[in-house]
Amino acid sequence: MNEHADKRKEFGNIWLIIFSDITTNLMLFFLMLFSMTRMTAVEKQMVVAGMESTVVNRSAREQAELERQAKMAREEAAIKRIQQAAADGKLAGKATIAVTDKTVKIALNPETFFSIGSAKLNPGTVHVLESLAGLIEAFPNDIIIEGHTDTIPVRGGAYRSNWELSIARAVGVVNFFTATGLDPKQLVAAGYGEFHPAHPNDSEVNRARNRRIEITLVRQARSML
Predict the structure, then answer these.
(1) What does the pLDDT read at residue 224?
(2) Cβ distance 112 to 124 under 8 Å?
(3) Strand partners, 188
(4) Are 140 and 129 in contact (CB under 8 A)?
(5) pLDDT digit string (tens) for 129-160?
(6) Structural contact between residues 127 and 154, judged by C-beta atoms closer than 8 angstroms
(7) Chain center to CA of 38
(8) How far from the centroid of its chain's Cα atoms is residue 85's Cα?
(9) Which residues on adjacent β-strands are paired with residue 183?
(10) Lesser CB count within 10 Å: N end or C end of the chain?
């Protein structure tokens, strides 16, 4: 009986705690109102501005989070469309896709990208890039266009080295994409020369494969890197 009586006494006193909290909050509220009556007009404006700033900052954070989630949703949808196109769509047999937490790597493999020493896109490559442009236009972050060459040294012509040739190839694709409507602010041109071959440079077939473009979709916004 004593145990039950103690429990009733314990729970019976909870209302006192709640009442005390309410009374304290009311007292603080009225003290704040009273203190505001003693403030100058400038001080009141400062208090109101501080309260408005707090509300605005919280609203801005909430809006930024909603925008971040929307961007992630667009990114995931774009990746799924690219994977589907590479599996059994317009890019089937013409591209391989490698997805990590940080990037989406698109290795294009038309029959031939470029002729020896040239940055001009071959007709077959144009069709592949046209198919790809429609798939990556919704991607929200940076898109890096990477130009590559084979190991044959550049002799004469418009380019002094394979470095310049690889960059020219990347810039040509950037120009192609901007002409199709992609946002130039997202596009980055990079040249790797002959130093990142996809195949051994031991035959004309493999050298033709190394004269290529690869595309990297960056999965984080530039400000987050």
Answers:
(1) 54
(2) yes
(3) 144
(4) no
(5) 998 999 999 888 999 999 999 999 998 888 99
(6) no
(7) 52
(8) 20
(9) none
(10) N
Of 52, 37, 74, the residue nearest 186 (C-alpha): 74
> Distance (Å, rounded) from C-alpha 211 to C-alpha 204?
11
- Which contacts qualify for 36-44: CB closer than 8 Å, 24 or more apart? none
In order of 20, 51, 173, the CA distances from 31 in angstroms are 16, 17, 68
Of the ranges 1-10, 14-23, 71-80, 137-146, the best mean pLDDT one: 137-146
pLDDT of residue 217: 96
Which pair of structure tokens corresponds to residue 67?
A: 């925008």
Q: Order across the sheet with 95-99: list the strands.
A: 95-99, 103-108, 213-218, 143-147, 187-191
Q: Which two tokens stand for residue 64?
A: 């930024």
Give the span between the Cα atoms of 157 and 159, in whole angstroms.
6
In contact, 44 and 36? CB cutoff 8 Å: yes
Question: How many Å apart are CA 217 and CA 146, to the nearest integer?
Answer: 11
Burial label for 150, CB within 10 Å (0-12, 13-18, 19+), is buried
Please state the three-class secondary structure of the chain as a single string. Answer: CHHHHHHHHHHHCHHHHHHHHHHHHHHHHHHHHHHHHCCCHHHHHHHHHHHHHHHHHHHHHHHHHHHHHHHHHHHHHHHHHHHHHHHHCCCCCCEEEEECCCEEEEEECCCCCCCCCCCCCCHHHHHHHHHHHHHHCCCCCCEEEEECCCCCCCCCCCCCCHHHHHHHHHHHHHHHHHHCCCCHHHEEEEECCCCCCCCCCCCHHHHHHHCCEEEEEECCCHHHC
